[in-house]
Structures are given as C-alpha cells and as structure tokens.
Amino acid sequence: MFRIHSNPKVAQYMGDGKPLTYERCVKWIEISIQNYKTKGFGVSAVIEKSTHELIGCCGLNLRSRAERTRHSRSDLQL
Hints:
The chain is built from 3 helices and 4 strands. It has one domain (2-77). By secondary structure, it is an alpha+beta fold. It is globular and about 35 Å long. It has a two-stranded antiparallel ribbon. The protein has a two-stranded antiparallel ribbon with strand order 3-4. Strand 1 and strand 2 form a beta hairpin.
C-alpha cells in the first residue's frame, strides 16, 4: 500500500492530494481495519486478476470534519 499511496501521481486523487509517509500509511491501514470492525465498511484492496498484483484500493472511507478538505465536503469519501 505504501508504494501506491506514496506515489504523487496517485495521491493527487486521494484524500488531501498529498503522498502518504510510511507512518501515515500504517495509520491509514489501522483506521481502515478499525472501520470494518466498528462501522461495517471500509476500503478494500484492488487486485489485478491476471497477475494477482495489488494495484490500488477502493471503498468507503468515513472522514471526520477535521479531515475534510476543500475538495471533499462530505463525511463519506468514495
């Protein structure tokens, strides 16, 4: 996940548009796991069928008011 989320070309389309540090990526994974446990939804891996390679992620991400940016005005980010 870090390889994907640390890439500036990919990060521009996620969250605040900034690449994640390793520490922030670990925290994001922990929060995603907790969201599944407490809210019943979250983000899942996207795997390339032919190679079984992790190529990204998709799903619902609940964001707090503090995490919202001018690009994301809703509590839910798809």
